[in-house]
Every structure is written in C-alpha cells, then in structure tokens.
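dumping this here so i dont lose it
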C-alpha cells in the first residue's frame, strides 16, 4: 500500500496515516515500482542483445561463446525474477511491454528486419525471440500478480486454520487441494507452446521478411501465437509446475545441437521443429519459462509469509 500526499487546508491538521503491524505508517511502494520498472526495461533489452549475439556466434569457439551468453541470460533472468517477485510484478509487465515495443518497431520498419543496422540485430528479429519474450513475460506478470494474491489468501487460511485448531471442540476445515492445478499446469503450458510452434514460425518469418505485405491471416496467426504464449506464462498463477518442468526440458532438447555434435541427437530439433526455433532460441525460451515459474513460486511464498506475519503480529 503506497502513501499518498495529503493536501491540507489552512487551520486543519493532516489526517493520520493508518499504522502498520509495528505501529508505524506503512512503507511506500513507489520506490519498488520505480526500481522494478527500470530493471524491467534494462532486463528486456539486455536479454535480447545477449540472445542476438549468441545467435550470430562465429563457428570457431561458438560452443563456449554460446554457452557463456546463455549462462549470462540465465543469471540476468534469475536476478530480475527474484527482484520482481520480492518487490513488485510491475517489473515483469514492463519487461514484456519493452520487448513488445521493440518488436512493433521492427514490424513497422519499411523493410522490417532488413532495415536494422547490425547483423546481430537482424538475426535477433528474424528468430522471433523478442516477440516470444514479450508474450511470455506479459503473461508471466499476470501470473506473478495472481500468485502473490493467492499466497496472501493461503496465509490467511493457514492462520485461521491454526486458530481453529487451538479452539476446543472445533474441527478445522482443511485447505482445498491443489493437485488438480498441478496436474493441469504441464499440459496447459505444453499446449500453448505447441500451438505457438505450429503457427508462429511460418507466419512470423513472412511478417518480418522484406517486400511482403502482412495480411490479416498472417497477423492473426501471430496474434494467436502471442495469446497462446501469454496464456502459458499466466498459467503460473495456478501452478508453477508446468513452467518449471517445461523449461529444463527445452534446454535439454537444445543441448545436443548446441554441443556441435559432441553429444548425439543434434538433429532432433530440426526434425521436431523444421521451421524453427533453433537450439539457441529454444534454450533461451526454456530459461525464460523457468524464470517465470520460479518468480510466481517466490511471489506466492512471499504473499503467504507476509499475510502470516501481519496476522500473527496483530493477534
């Protein structure tokens, strides 16, 4: 809850602030919003640059360079996610919006990806990763927000259950099971990714190719893919199991192709996904899915802990 400035009329006293659990006025959330928003912009741009450099890595030493760049994406994603989960999910929303603005600029350029000045930037846009990043984090921001609220409700329910358990003669009602949410989360995420993998590669490549007019069917396929990916990210509101399992699976699928034939199975991705994405983009998608899943998990846990702390201090 943020503090709002009060405007006093002459001769009147300022209205008292509502005290928090410790008797002090509640801390303003405005610095959290500003910090996470700034980090969201930097995070979206930094991850996009790293992916573009990884996608255009030269052949000599490309395995090591690509691995280091993907490792940097993992570290950045983990750090940003922890900040968003601990401070505000606004940072996740800004991440998605920043990537969406960058992608829209490429769509509106005269000859799309070919208008961009640097080869790595042209390669980045042609992979579709910026659009995928935008969709996943837009959905993930909503999932993180709802997960925090759900954790708050779980904390309140756990406190009431503890109080009822201490009352003689009362039988506390156990909290509802989340087994169904866990079981449905994995197929939900897989279905969103599969739909996007079917629709996005062909329609997106045509949409960013020079000299091709983007028709309604092409834009419709891109829009449906974005909605499917956003739904996969938003599913973390109910359960993070799907994102946290699917992410490592995508990375493991990409490892043989990234190993430059040192690990067998390097042609598996090209057979499963003949129109893309390639191994680098697939691994990056897996990293972002893992980050979004862990972010929602941390937000839910923090919401539960905060609710319990407030209720116990006020009891």
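and the seq i came up w/
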């Amino acid at each position: 809850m943020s503090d709002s400035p009060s405007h006093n009329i002459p001769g009147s006293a300022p209205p008292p602030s509502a005290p928090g659990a410790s008797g002090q006025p509640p801390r303003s959330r405005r610095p959290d919003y500003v910090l996470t928003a700034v980090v969201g912009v930097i995070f979206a741009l930094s991850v996009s640059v790293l992916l573009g450099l990884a996608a255009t890595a030269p052949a000599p030493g490309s395995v090591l360079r690509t691995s280091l760049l993907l490792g940097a994406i993992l570290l950045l994603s983990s750090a940003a996610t922890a900040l968003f989960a601990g401070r505000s999910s606004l940072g996740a929303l800004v991440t998605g919006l920043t990537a969406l603005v960058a992608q829209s600029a490429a769509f509106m350029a005269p000859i799309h990806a070919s208008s961009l000045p640097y080869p790595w930037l042209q390669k980045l846009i042609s992979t579709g990763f910026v659009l995928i990043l935008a969709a996943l984090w837009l959905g993930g921001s909503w999932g993180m927000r709802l997960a925090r609220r759900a954790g708050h409700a779980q904390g309140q329910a756990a406190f009431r259950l503890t109080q009822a358990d201490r009352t003689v003669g009362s039988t506390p009602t156990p909290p509802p099971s989340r087994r169904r949410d866990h079981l449905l989360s994995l197929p939900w995420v897989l279905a969103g990714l599969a739909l996007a993998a079917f629709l996005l590669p062909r329609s997106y490549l045509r949409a960013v190719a020079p000299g091709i007019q983007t028709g309604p069917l092409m834009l419709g396929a891109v829009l449906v893919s974005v909605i499917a990916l956003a739904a996969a990210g938003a599913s973390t509101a109910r359960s993070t199991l799907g994102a946290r399992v699917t992410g490592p699976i995508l990375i493991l699928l990409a490892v043989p192709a990234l190993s430059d034939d040192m690990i067998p199975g390097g042609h598996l991705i090209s057979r499963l996904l003949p129109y893309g994405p390639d191994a680098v983009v697939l691994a990056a998608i897996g990293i972002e899915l893992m980050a979004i899943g862990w972010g929602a998990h941390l937000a839910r846990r923090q919401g539960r802990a905060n609710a319990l702390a407030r209720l116990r201090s006020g009891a």
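Residues 129-166 form the longest helix (38 residues).
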